[in-house]
């Protein structure tokens, strides 16, 4: 059922409109409401505040997942899994749309549109930079965005079912609330960032291995080992670029929008590798 849920959710996600029930607005309103009530009680700016934010949302999904079980040949569980995955894949435009927006803007020389598309790919984290440097930044952000919006949710879904995918998106939203609100509190922001970093630790490694298998294995593996001391997002992004055959940072790169399009194609092949591994796991479990 997990493999069927994955395939159906990926197909549905490619046709869903951005926003709606998957957007971050509802979660941010709930978080702001809870923060206003916990702050006077000193119950917000620490790990306890983060737990009070997430547990009430996770509990109903856990209860549903546990109670549905294999009822009605697993169909209710299948629907729950598809809904959890579609939620976990995010409420914005698809990666295909965001890549197309950047590559078309960069190729026609529209710096403002390319910068806006790059900002979308980075989740609002891209700063100002020269036009010629944008493809390199976009290719790196694309790898990280695919990790957060595809690979990590799939990993946690395969491991924990709908609760895993739903919980990962909630953790990402909780971190996003801290990034978007100056008064979120340093203790809360630090705990939310640490939680997402913990949840990304194993998916990062499996994704790096799959990127190497789908691209230039030697280059990707070498960069992964050489960047062991760097921050996790930069390490994964550099590994993704190396899987494309792009030299490490510091060497001349001179990338164009073609590198971003090639990166998207590489990520699609990497996703196929993951799905093949899930299918193999299902067959082994049946056997």
From TrEMBL:
Listed InterPro entries: Beta-lactamase_Reg (IPR052966), Cobalamin_biosynth_CobD/CbiB (IPR004485)
Transmembrane segments: 43-64, 71-90, 150-168, 206-224, 271-286
Hydrolase as UniProt keyword: no
Keyword hit for Ribonucleoprotein: no
Native source organism of the sequence: Spiribacter insolitus
Name of the encoding gene: ampE
Alphabetic keyword roster: Membrane, Transmembrane, Transmembrane helix
Protein name: Regulatory signaling modulator protein AmpE
């Amino acid at each position: 059922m997990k493999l069927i849920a994955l395939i159906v959710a990926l197909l549905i996600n490619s046709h869903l409109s951005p926003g709606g029930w998957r957007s971050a607005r509802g979660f941010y309103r709930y978080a702001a409401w809870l923060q206003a009530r916990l702050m006077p009680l000193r119950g917000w700016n620490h790990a306890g505040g983060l737990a009070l934010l997430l547990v009430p949302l996770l509990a109903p999904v856990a209860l549903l997942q546990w109670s549905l079980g294999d009822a009605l040949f697993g169909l209710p569980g299948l629907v729950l899994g598809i809904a959890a995955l579609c939620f976990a894949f995010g409420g914005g435009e698809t990666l295909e749309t965001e890549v197309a927006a950047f590559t078309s803007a960069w190729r026609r020389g529209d710096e403002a549109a390319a910068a806006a598309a790059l900002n979308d790919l980075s989740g609002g984290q891209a700063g100002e930079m020269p036009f010629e440097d944008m493809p390199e930044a976009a290719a790196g952000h694309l790898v990280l965005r695919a990790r957060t919006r595809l690979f990590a949710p799939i990993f946690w879904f395969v491991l924990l079912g709908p609760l895993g995918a739903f919980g990962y998106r909630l953790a990402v939203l909780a971190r996003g609330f801290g990034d978007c609100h100056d008064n979120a509190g340093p203790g809360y922001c630090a705990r939310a960032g640490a939680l997402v970093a913990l949840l990304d630790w194993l998916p990062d490694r499996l994704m790096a291995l799959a990127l190497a298998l789908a691209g230039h294995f030697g280059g990707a593996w070498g960069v992964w080992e050489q960047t062991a001391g760097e921050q996790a997002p930069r390490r994964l992004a550099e590994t993704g670029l190396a899987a494309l055959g792009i030299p490490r940072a510091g060497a001349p790169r001179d990338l164009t929008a073609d590198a971003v399009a090639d990166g998207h194609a590489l990520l699609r092949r990497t996703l196929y590798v993951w799905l093949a591994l899930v299918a193999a796991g299902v067959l082994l479990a049946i056997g």
